[in-house]
Design brief:
The structure holds 2 protein chains of 2 kinds. Chain A contains 21 helices and 2 strands. By secondary structure, chain A is mainly alpha-helical. Chain B is mostly helical. In chain B, about 70% of the residues lie in helices and about 5% in strands. A two-stranded antiparallel sheet of chain B has the order 1-2. Classes of the chains: A mainly alpha, B mainly alpha. The interface between A and B is large, with 127 and 130 residues.
């Protein structure tokens, strides 16, 4: 029996706990453990991706109890892709942290792997309550990471984040309780059977649960108007943490995708979600773009671009068609990696500018041509300008929109892109061109941070070059998602699927 | 294959100048110059193929799913543009070699220039709409860097940003237009689309498509009212202006009109939109040019005007007008590039571009002066120069407009008017600069003739103006025919490229323009005064900047208004969303709220408990400003929850809840030490009203949902657990078996959560230094030594007893109420008691254990138990159990689940103790070090 599916969970869990044992041994051994395990996640995830790409949906029953009684881990194309993305993101983020940020507080190397444990678990679990558990792991670990380095801003932003998310967790529990109360099961596939065959009198409860779950996941994904925690948290955190958090909003997006294709499909009790989501997505893009235009700091600007990217993803997802999901799934890795890269780049730039940091105001220090070139490249990528992948993602999205919705969505996505161009060109001009006034040059370029930044940018370029295979995979994933009966059959057997 | 290399060469070549730049400016320039030379050589074969009527095509798939492929095709139009882009590009590079200043980095300059060249080559060679768009946006991006090249100047930065924003916006509109065109035709391949003009024009989406595409073309080609970026882009180094605004950047827009002419033209919207915009731009640009005192400003507006002319020609929408447009594209590129270069020479040699200061230069620089004058004459449309011929064709075409009906006189008159203005500003360029007395207060005096190799590129272009003007059929005719045929995508109209057409209407218009222009120029001083009085301070680019600043300020205000950093607001929004999510479906009336199940009878004790719980909850809210009281009342709610569990026969839950309640209340009490004991009311009344409504909505919603659930029949898988707990899990206590076996993975996750929480609290508080709460001047004391000898003695005896109880609960957990979680909490409570009774110092001395390690070993033990099942080829966390007969003790059941439970136990103990110790140490550190006092 193959246990590889457990590796993305056990590796970081064990690494975190081993690092907890090593707390008093200085950062050296801890770094080694984190680096080794994080690096090991990548080949493991790729292995799983290759397996999932055969179209097989892999089922792993924990405790050897049959589904739906035991907890199921389910690996399909979507979860495999996100595992690879997490691994691709985690390694540069961790390497960047070894530039010294990991020593700015206790237990960075405990929290970092545990954060990965939570993220990977959320992607792999096939059980709604277990998803809740992993959301908790993620939440608490991210809270610890967000506070890493200390200081008033971090504590404040972290407090807001944790309070909001604890309320979110309670609401998640209410939603799960509602579903369990009527369906009597927690397994996602089993719930899917129930919700598609439920009696009419259960409909209001199912609809309430669907909307409540959407609320909870929208909070995670930072969708309007539940996005207010994000800019403060991301801009206050240390750069490697902000970079890692680029995947956190995507967990919310993932949960929306999973829930409303499988558990509460939009063709059934999730219909309200399909009605609400497009408007919410567009408003998210619009307000995110406004935030980016008005930002005083580079990291705040990037944080709002994360909000924009979430809106763009949901705009694609809200179509719930193969082309729409394909566009979103193509865009997802690109936007995750590039925003992460930008957060690291912002740290490099801020380091060069001394006391002014990432404030968008002129100082006498030019951060240098290398950083300027990297910023230009990253700005093109994140604004969705050709020729980088962001452009292709937007192109797929615009093409996916059916004619009735096209005027709205096209306008918002394109104008949002223009706002990003304007905001980034202003920021770039302030940071790299307007060298005047007083200022003392900051530190040099820490090699781990620089390497990680370049690596993340190179990855987005690679995604552009290999756009065709990625799109093929995204399309296959979208098709698989819109055929939930395949998952039901894989988890509960052929009989249940019918 | 050649085509691919032509496109790739400039991009690859862009890597070389920065390297060569280290050897000096010459090296950078020559390496850069190699690129257009090589590309021109490569272009020979496709060009011959285009002449032979068989355009070369090369295709590569990139992203077929999005219809994005790399398809290059060189027909006549593309060939003509390739010659212009590469040829003029080569001259610009040679010129820039002498132009660049000492502190301009030559490597960067030439690299950017080559990037831009590559993007332009890509545009004209594209046979695919989306690919064209990619290169289109690349020109916007690379021109941004070129315009902002001298980025220490504020004009350069602003000009660059403005150009990027305007052309970038146009690019996005163009993208939408192309996508619509793709939807209409089902293809993105241009050569396919060109043949589908009838389908496109008949389609309901034709007008939006046309509007969007024109938006792209007009922003790029600086048509009114998007023209304002172009004069601002003059902040670029002059070679860049000469390149961007003669043959390339701005010509991309008219190129697009030419490219899509067969597909989009031939309708009223086309005529009015394209023709109208062109005419407006033509006149406006010519008028504005006359009033610019800056040499490059004059040329910039004249460029706008000439672009308007070309656009107008396409708008006139006759085959002959299209031929004239192509002809004028060629002519304008040659004379305008040479004029910009001449302006650069003058700037270079005199140090200024202000025409009020640079006068009488002819005697200082006769060669440059002569060349500039010939080029300016071509711009004015003087006979025997190339500008004259295309202008004559333009004048002739203004008469063929039946569409305008009785207003058909309007266009020739407007064209003549623009012609007069063009002559006037050209005359100004010639007379002000080279004659008109002596120079005034030049920064560099006396001016010299420019270096020979700086003049050479100008001479080459001016030579072309002359040769084309005198021998059109021998020189330009075949290229014009080839390109025009490609534009029309059909047979060429009959036209005659003779220098002398006879004494006809166009010639009269030319004469009127010539004399009218000179007359106008001679009256310029009165005119300038009038202009200043009428249009003082009206500048489109200033308006644009004001709009952008308003927009940014507005965005900032809107963002700050929404995201004001208030946690209350975020929470309110979340609760509002949750309340709506629950209440709206319930209120939608799909079916009745209550189900069919009867409600069981309410006994008085339960009722009393429920009422008490509600009262306690309300009391918590009531006392929430007095934290200690609120906490105590809150614990009442918790205890009643325990009793509720007992009432409904859930002893495990009751035990757990009880222990959790005790531990959390104790930890909260410790934390309260650092908070003010009381809290002032901070929210205004309306907000408290809002909060009340939200609370009612969410609480009521939860209540209603619960009501709805409990009154409905439910399916459940719980029976499976009851049936399989003992035979499959080896335990009679189903709750415990669920926790450690059926859903043991959840428990593993949850103890990890606990562990992380403890670590996070530790990380947060470890280096923190907090002053104890002192809001109303009352500072509570923290006891480090034991209070009561009796309590201390008793608790010390109690400890082993409590531990025995914990072990007991742990061991029986699998079969009776208890388990690792409860046992862990009991142990923790016993240890907390030691702290409370004997003080921190004493307890810390007794307890040397490092709690981090306890937590880590706990989780590791649980995980290792799960891993053990791999040895037996079972999934993670598969349990095993067996009954064994031990001497003395008798039969005993050993289950792997107990090992797992031991892990839970250790984690819980470690977590509670770590939090406690952290809080304790925090207070000791704060008080002892005295830093916070």
């Amino acid at each position: 029996m193959s246990h590889w599916i457990m590796a993305p969970l056990l590796l970081p869990l064990l690494a975190g706990m081993v690092n907890l044992l090593l707390v008093r041994h200085g950062p050296g051994p801890q770094r080694l453990v984190s680096l080794l395990t994080t690096a090991a996640l990548l080949p493991v995830a790729i292995l799983l991706l290759l397996r999932a790409d055969s179209g097989e949906i892999v089922l792993y029953q924990l405790g050897n109890w049959p589904a739906p009684f035991g907890i199921s881990l389910v690996l399909d194309r979507l979860s495999a892709m996100l595992l690879v993305l997490t691994a691709l993101l985690a390694l540069p983020a961790l390497v960047a942290a070894t530039a010294g940020d990991d020593r700015r507080g206790e237990n960075f190397h405990v929290l970092f792997p545990l954060q990965l444990f939570g993220i990977n678990g959320a992607f792999l679990t096939g059980d709604l309550f277990n998803l809740f558990v992993f959301f908790e792991v993620m939440l608490i670990a991210s809270y610890g990471l967000a506070l890493h380095g200390g200081g008033r801003d971090r504590v404040r932003a972290g407090l807001h984040y944790v309070v909001l998310n604890l309320i979110g967790s309670s609401l998640f529990l209410v939603a799960i309780g509602t579903l369990y109360g009527i369906a009597g099961t927690l397994n996602m596939a089993d719930l899917a059977i129930y919700t598609t065959t439920a009696a009419v009198e259960q409909t209001p409860l199912l609809r309430a649960a669907a909307l409540l779950l959407l609320t909870v996941f929208a909070l995670k994904a930072a969708v309007l108007p539940l996005h207010l925690w994000l800019p403060a948290l991301y801009s206050a955190g240390i750069a490697p943490v902000a970079a890692l958090f680029a995947i956190m909003t995507k967990v919310g997006v993932y949960a929306i995708l999973r829930t409303f294709t499988l558990i509460l499909p939009v063709t059934g009790p999730g219909a309200d979600v399909a009605a609400v989501l497009p408007a919410v997505a567009l408003l998210t893009i619009a307000l995110g773009a406004l935030g980016a235009l008005g930002a005083h700091r580079l990291t705040v600007l990037i944080a709002y671009l994360v909000v924009v990217s979430v809106g763009t993803l949901l705009a694609g997802i809200s179509l719930f068609t193969v082309p729409g999901l394909t566009a979103a799934l193509f865009y997802l890795p690109h936007t995750t990696l590039i925003t992460a890269g930008l957060f690291l780049l912002a740290a490099l730039i801020a380091g060069r500018r001394g006391a002014v940091g990432d404030q968008l105001q002129a100082v006498a220090v030019n951060p240098g041509n290398l950083l300027g070139g990297l910023f230009f490249l990253a700005a093109i990528a994140v604004a969705g300008m050709p020729p980088l992948g962001g452009f292709l993602g937007k192109l797929l999205l615009l093409q996916a929109v059916p004619p009735p919705q096209a005027p709205w969505l096209w306008t918002v996505v394109l104008v949002g892109g223009l706002a990003a161009i304007v905001a980034l060109s202003r920021a770039g001009s302030s940071l790299f061109w307007r060298t005047e006034g007083e200022g003392v040059a900051g530190t040099g370029l820490p090699l781990p941070l620089l390497t990680s930044t370049v690596l993340l940018l190179a990855l987005t370029v690679a995604l552009t070059v290999w756009a065709a295979p990625l799109t093929r995979y995204a399309e296959a994933t979208a098709t698989q998602l819109l055929r939930p009966q395949e998952t039901v059959e894989a988890v509960l057997g052929r009989e249940a699927g019918r | 294959m050649n085509l691919l290399f032509i496109v790739l060469l400039p991009f690859a070549g862009a890597l070389l100048p920065p390297l060569a730049g280290r050897l000096g400016r010459e090296a950078a320039a020559w390496t850069a110059a190699i690129v257009p030379v090589l590309a021109l050589l490569l272009a020979l074969e496709p060009l011959l193929a285009a002449f032979a009527g068989a355009p070369m095509t090369v295709g590569r798939a990139w992203l077929p799913q999005a219809g994005v492929d790399l398809i290059l095709r060189m027909d006549g139009l593309a060939g003509l543009f390739i010659l212009l882009i590469l040829g003029i590009g080569l001259l610009i590079i040679l010129y820039a070699n002498y132009y660049l200043a000492e502190d301009d980095s030559p490597g960067r300059f030439f690299a950017l220039l080559l990037l831009f060249m590559g993007a332009m080559v890509g545009i004209v060679l594209s046979d695919h709409l989306l690919q064209l768009l990619v290169f289109w946006e690349l020109t916007s991006l690379s021109s941004f860097l070129l315009i902002g090249f001298r980025h220490r100047s504020v004009e350069a930065r602003q000009g660059a940003k403005m150009a990027l924003a305007v052309t970038g916006a146009g690019g996005l509109a163009l993208l939408a237009g192309f996508l619509l065109l793709g939807r209409i035709t089902g293809s993105y391949q241009i050569s396919t689309i060109l043949g589908m003009g009838d389908i496109i024009r008949a389609h309901p989406l034709y007008v939006p498509t046309l509007l969007l595409i024109l938006l792209g073309a007009f922003t790029k080609s600086a048509q009114f009212p998007f023209h304002f970026w172009l004069p601002q882009a003059m902040a670029a180094p002059t070679p860049v202006s000469a390149y961007l605004h003669s043959a390339t950047m701005v010509k991309a827009g008219v190129f697009l009109l030419a490219r899509l002419f067969p597909a989009l033209s031939g309708t009223d919207p086309w005529f009015f939109l394209v023709g109208g915009t062109g005419l407006l731009t033509l006149v406006y640009g010519a008028y504005s040019a006359l009033f610019k005192h800056d040499l490059k400003g004059l040329l910039a507006y004249s460029t706008i005007s000439h672009l308007g002319l070309i656009v107008l020609l396409f708008g006139i929408d006759t085959p002959l007008a299209a031929v004239a447009a192509v002809f004028h594209i060629i002519n304008h590129a040659t004379f305008k590039a040479s004029l910009f270069m001449a302006a650069g020479i003058i700037d270079h040699e005199t140090g200024t571009r202000d025409m009020r200061r640079i006068n009488g230069l002819w005697k200082y620089m006769p060669i440059s002066g002569t060349l500039a004058m010939v080029a300016a004459a071509a711009m004015a449309g003087v006979p025997l120069l190339n500008g004259f011929m295309s202008k004559e064709m333009f004048f002739a075409e203004t008469f063929h407009l039946a569409v305008l009906g009785s207003f058909s006189w309007f266009l020739p008159v407007a064209a003549t008017g623009a012609g007069i203005l063009a002559v006037a500003y050209s005359a100004r360029f010639i007379h002000d600069v080279f004659f008109n007395g002596e120079p005034v207060n030049l920064p560099k005096y006396p001016p010299h003739e420019a270096p020979r190799y700086m003049i050479l590129p100008v001479a080459v272009l001016v030579g072309q103006c002359l040769i084309v003007g005198v021998f059109p059929t021998l020189t330009v005719a075949p290229f014009l025919a080839l390109a025009s045929a490609a534009v029309l995508n059909g047979p060429l109209p009959a036209y005659n490229l003779a220098v002398w057409h006879g004494f006809n209407a166009p010639f009269i218009m030319s004469l009127v323009a010539m004399f009218g222009g000179i007359l106008l120029y001679s009256r310029r001083h009165a005119l300038f005064a009038l202009h200043d009085r009428l249009f003082w301070g009206i500048e489109a680019h200033l308006l644009y900047r004001r709009v952008v600043h308003r927009l940014i300020d507005g965005a900032r205000m809107a963002t700050e208004a929404i995201d004001n950093g208030s946690l209350q607001r975020s929470v309110a929004l979340l609760l509002l969303a949750a309340g709506l999510a629950v209440l709206l479906p319930l209120a939608s009336g799909d079916s009745a709220l209550a189900g069919d199940l009867p409600i069981s009878a309410v006994d008085p004790v339960t009722l009393l408990g429920a009422l008490l719980m509600m009262a306690a909850a309300l009391a918590t809210v009531f006392f929430h400003r007095q934290r200690l009281i609120a906490l105590i009342v809150l614990s009442v709610v918790g205890l009643l929850a325990v009793l509720t569990f007992v009432r409904f026969s859930a002893p495990d839950l009751a035990l757990t809840q009880l222990a959790v309640e005790v531990v959390t209340i104790m930890l909260l009490l410790l934390a309260l030490y650092f908070l003010p004991q009381q809290d002032r009311p901070e929210s205004p009344g309306w907000r408290r009203g809002r909060d009340l409504l939200l609370a009612l909505a969410v609480g009521g919603g939860c209540g209603l949902v619960t009501w709805a659930i409990l009154t409905r029949p439910a399916t459940t898988i719980a029976d499976y657990y009851l049936a399989n707990s003992l035979p499959g899990g080896g335990g009679a206590n189903v709750v415990n078996v669920i926790l450690v076996d059926f859903r043991g993975f959840d428990t593993l996750g949850e103890i990890t959560v606990l562990a992380i929480a403890a670590i996070a609290i530790y990380a947060l508080l470890d280096r923190l230094c907090l002053a104890p709460g002192t809001l109303y001047g009352v500072r509570p004391r923290w006891a480090f030594e034991r209070h009561s000898l009796v309590l201390a003695q008793i608790t010390r005896f109690l400890l082993p007893l409590a531990l025995m109880v914990a072990i007991y609960f742990f061991l029986r957990g699998h079969n009776a109420p208890g388990g690792g979680f409860i046992a862990g909490l009991i142990t923790a409570i016993a240890l907390i008691l030691q702290y409370m009774a004997s003080g921190i110092t004493w307890t810390q001395m007794q307890w040397h254990q490092h709690f981090h390690k306890v937590i880590a070993w706990g989780v590791l033990l649980a995980a290792a138990t799960g891993l053990g099942s791999w040895l037996f080829d079972r999934p993670f966390l598969t349990s095993a159990f067996g009954h064994y007969d031990l001497p003395l003790i008798g039969e005993i059941e050993l289950a792997t689940a107990m090992l797992f439970d031991l892990g839970v136990y250790l984690t819980v103990v470690g977590v509670v103790m770590l939090i406690l110790a952290t809080l304790a140490l925090l207070s000791r550190r704060c008080v002892e070090t005295g830093r916070c006092n």
